[in-house]
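User: My advisor, Dr. K., asked me to get a structural model of this assembly before our group meeting. I'm new to this, so sorry if the format is off. These are the inputs:
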Amino acid sequence: MKWKTIKEHIIYSLLRLSGLFIVCTLAILLFYILSGGIGKISWEFLTNFPTNGMMSGGIFPMILGTLSLMTLTMLIALPLGIFSAIYLVEYAKPGRFTNAIRLAVHNLAGVPSIVYGLVGLGLFVVFLGLGLSLVSAALTLAIMVLPIIIASSQEALRAVPQNIREGALALGSTKWETTCHHVLPYALPGMLTGSILALSRAAGETAPIIMTGAAFYMTHLPSSIFDEFMALPYSIYTLATQSSNAEATRPTVFGAILVLLLIVLCMNLVAIIVRNYYRRKYRW
Amino acid sequence: MKFDLFTLKKYDYKKIRNLKDNAIRKILFGFGATAVIFIIIILVFLLIEGLPFFLEGDGIDFFTGDVWDPSSPNTPRYGILPMVLGTFLVTLGAIVIAVPIGIGCSIYLAEIAHPKIRETLKPIIEILAGIPSVVYGFFALIILSTWIDDFFNSTTKLNALTGSIMLAIMMLPIIISLSEDAIRSVPQEMKEASLALGLSKWDTIRGVVVPAALSGITAAIILGVARAIGETMTVLMATGNAPVISFDMLSSMRTMTATIAIEMGEVPFGSTHYHSLFAVGIVLFAITFIVNFIADRVMKRFREKY
Amino acid sequence: MSEDIEIETRNLSLWYGDKQALKNIDMKIPEEKVTAIIGPSGCGKSTLIRCFNRMNDIIEICRVKGNILIDGKDIYDKTMDVVELRKNVGMVFQKPNPFPKSIYENIAYATRIHGIKNKKKLNEIVEKCLKQAFLWDEVKDRLDGSARSLSGGQQQRLCIARALAIEPKIILMDEPCSALDPIATAKIEELIRYLSEKYTVVIVTHNMQQAARVSDYTAYMYIGEVIEFGKTKQIFENPSEENTENYITGRFG
Amino acid sequence: MSEDIEIETRNLSLWYGDKQALKNIDMKIPEEKVTAIIGPSGCGKSTLIRCFNRMNDIIEICRVKGNILIDGKDIYDKTMDVVELRKNVGMVFQKPNPFPKSIYENIAYATRIHGIKNKKKLNEIVEKCLKQAFLWDEVKDRLDGSARSLSGGQQQRLCIARALAIEPKIILMDEPCSALDPIATAKIEELIRYLSEKYTVVIVTHNMQQAARVSDYTAYMYIGEVIEFGKTKQIFENPSEENTENYITGRFG
Amino acid sequence: STRTKIKQKGSDTMLELAQIWAEEYVKVNDNVTLSVSGGGSGTGIAQMINGQIDIADASRPIKKHEIAIAQSQGIFPVEFRICLDGIAIITSKNIDVSEISFDQLQGIYNGTIKNWNELGGSNLKITVYGRQSNSGTYVFFQEHVLNDDDYRTDMQPLNGNSQIVDAVAGDNDGIGYVGVAYAENRASELNILKVKEGENAQPILPTIENVATEDYPISRYLYIYTNSNPIGELARYVRWILDEDGGQKVAENLGFIPLPQYIIEEELEKIS
Ligand SMILES: Nc1ncnc2c1ncn2[C@@H]1O[C@H](COP(=O)(O)OP(=O)(O)OP(=O)(O)O)[C@@H](O)[C@H]1O
Ligand SMILES: Nc1ncnc2c1ncn2[C@@H]1O[C@H](COP(=O)(O)OP(=O)(O)OP(=O)(O)O)[C@@H](O)[C@H]1O
Ligand SMILES: [Mg+2]
Ligand SMILES: [Mg+2]
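Assistant: The format is fine. Below is the predicted structure of the whole assembly, which you can bring to the meeting.
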């Protein structure tokens, strides 16, 4: 009996250690990134063009590029994803076809981003003639996040209890009234949470945009969505691996990483806050 | 339905509602169909661009050849084996590291940790999951690789192990959060039943909770693996990218994803090399699709159980 | 039975996939009376009353054969407007399911979608329905409060008020008290008795005492069939089937 | 009551957070008899029997005052080994909850952890317990099959067998039949009667007929208090409290 | 906006050069928007062939079959030499070998030489670093030093010159090849080898002068390619690149070797 208690204590300690591992990992990562990048962050850094081979100046065009890429991706993917999820959950009759779609959506959510890049290059850049451009990259990212948005929106819709729908239908509401008044208001936060998380993943994606429209350096901001653009992840990648004077450009890399992390984490934070707020608000 | 808009009167309210209902149904169907078409296009396009490569007669060599050297001035060779092996070993390494830590951590979170600790740890895990892969890659490139080099005194800083460790850290959030869900969805009655038999908490976790959540945990691991297989930037920056057949975790390796990322830019459209990369894409797609499919199945079985 | 018939089922059968849940049910439910449906768990009580407002339509695997006439019209007819039907046949569910909106909105909602947008009129309707459901006094000061903050019994009465607001002729109740405590149950039962003056009420219950207390007619179901249907007093005191008697006297169930 | 006393509660009170769920309960449960606890929903029946094996310990907000003596020992004493206590006081739950393992493992798992590792001995115990639970004949050919593939009633009997395997002296049952059909219920009731020859059985039930059928003693609870406790026959035929009578005759609940 | 867009892409060796060109050029001529990307010489040429860009940067001359493919797509690449570059052979500090011949280099890179002691160094396995296959340096080295042999398969192909410098500096048995500018920048952490073309030739160190005079045997031109002879803004830009006080000066500042005047004249003639 005694030995058993000791043994269990050892096991609990090991389990605790694995929890600690996560904390340490994050702490180390953040420590390096913060200590490398915090000194670089300044108003000038955020609002100026890079100069002198990216050793000085700022990263404004990359920030702007990443943000506009996000916006465009969202404009394409969000309505498409959310409305198709509504169709699939609330309207589609189950059957082989719906099942196949469900399966496809579910499994495509796990397909590597590089494959989407490949398709984006072949399809949008070349076949559709959109060229290396913001819109090609946004379309590529949009089809990449589409399955994720659909899947998480479906989940949010399903989380609305059936008895709410039944309650509304029993009062003589039409299907759309039921969906619009009684399902969407409660599912929307969940749908948005999933979508924001998906988009924040897209914000950090590098591989697909290398192939579809990101440029390392541009002398001016893009003037339309058919121009190339600069983006934080691509700049980080290139500067980290190609720069002839790695020591001199490293602060810029750290600074860019910090900014990218902030953008992504802010999106995550918003998603988490939205979710927690509504989780507390609607407990079925 | 025959319907004249101009004769609509107030008392036709009911008709308007029904009309609206039908219109919206059609619009939504349109959206659903568009999304589906999008998704189908991906598949079709991938196949159109990749299949010619198999048909051109290099198909067999593709799967059996052990040399990948498409830009050789002598004889370009397209053997996918080194990259399949690279992907396999790097992923395996990541599994070995991430699975014990991941399961341990999820048990800790779900069953042992004080609710307050759980509530602080979960956002941390979510933050880890949200960090872009290029950041992990950068970390591997400049910091982790130096540590590995110092510690193992390896011949090269950028090697499979560096990649595996980084991938493990990227897999952990997926494994932990999904397994924690699985463990927490084991019904309370099940735990009570075990406790009521006079079993200790650890006996309950080990003998009842974990076995009951096993398919959920398995699915979590499989999904983590799918993520690792498909990860590009991190391995591109961390593993050194030599397309060799080697079983030494301290040697440089190249994965399928890295191959596409490295070479896609250099190929003239329509060339054999171009199609060969789509062929790699198809293989990668097939592997992740199958892995996800299995995870989906396992997960479904898990859900059905309760 | 000399009363007017409100709902009539003719040889009604129902399948969930391959499984038959209702078997050739013939039943005539009288107008402006309370009819209770009792029977052991899984015998098809819920399934049956969900046929009356075609709530089963939303279950994909469900197939129906036979006819149900309400006021003489076949509700499974192709020309039937289901939305309209459900307006005439209100339903109250086992678990109170108020919308997570304000108390006021819960009642005003259905009224509004059915075309009444006048604010004053809405107010009147809300008040009337809450009064009918014996809830007005308890909530009149907090109509804007969330319906979810009400107690279980109050929520259930709110659901009843909500059903009354669309002015149905029939009210179906599927074990409306099973989630409630005795005091709340007593209030709902009182309400049911009161409603039967103006509405046809069909109530499913597990609780035989409840059936005896509130209903005028009782149907006893067993594995998809209606074994016995008649005046409540007669069923409870002098059942003609042995199966019924066994169930009522608690020999099983 | 002339029997030996197995469980005795002395002035037992219990709170969930601020809410008192049990109020000064004094009760003496006799040995090797079946004691039924009845009462309307939410009155504290489950809470009470979950005190007997300290199952409430795992609910964080739960506080207990007063004493419970089992075989004369205070189980809420500091020196009490909870794991050991639960070994002596088995429990069967409302919903059958077999472990997702094989039928054999369901019974053998706890036994093995409690120190019996000999394969032959384990086999014997499994067989004995399944026989005691009237389940042996139905499952003897598929001991390696999943417990989840059994029917609800079989699962519940498996849970009872599982509880018997650790050789408790007392068996607590919290509405063991509420999820079962009439035939399965009848089997479990038969089993309870049989168990009372060797074990002290405490059963919570909603079903008064069931209490009347299986128990020797009955406790009637109402909002956290034991209103009346005595021989079953007497409680049902001649209750001394009006509240009890109202409940039993179905005037509420 | 009305600015002319010029897309430039290709050699990683020239990435920084191209970027600073762009930076400097818009200071003198704001009528253009320049976008610059790396990816490798092969990438640049391929995308030129695919009609995606206006200027391809290349650290090797275009290949015959590439010209053929281009022409079949209606693209006619015009070549400009824009500066000189030498490729330095580097090892880590602790390798006690100071010179190397073409034969030895070929042996190391095709896999026949595996140990430093075969070169008179200590007994250490050689770890070989090179560039990824779409790099011009990769191809140039393969053609001129390896005599078109295939690289050994366990060479670690890295994505940029700086990665090679990093890797070699941190690896006590590594060898790699990088542009001289990259080697010079980190000279203190590296062992830069003298190179001789034949067995009996004079071993030469890759200094600026030695490359400029083409004495150093692994020297090459860096190129840009346009589709047909450039006109308009594109022509102005190319002219500026070839200008002594413009692009050539930038190149010199970055450690590349500017073109002699007579070559500049030759190249200018290609601009209509
Ligand atoms: N959606 C469904 N799909 C498949 N089978 C169903 C479905 N709903 C009910 N059933 C089955 O139909 C039968 C009748 O179910 P129903 O819910 O009508 O019983 P009930 O009398 O209301 O029982 P309870 O008293 O437990 O509510 C049961 O055997 C049940 O398992
Ligand atoms: N974990 C808990 N936290 C807070 N309150 C609880 C908890 N469990 C039970 N209660 C409350 O304690 C009271 C008694 O509950 P208990 O479950 O013992 O009733 P019961 O008699 O078993 O009812 P039922 O017949 O419905 O099972 C109820 O008011 C209930 O809401
Ligand atoms: Mg029911
Ligand atoms: Mg209970």
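One thing worth pointing out at the meeting: Chain B has two domains: 5-64, 81-305.

User: Perfect, thanks a lot.
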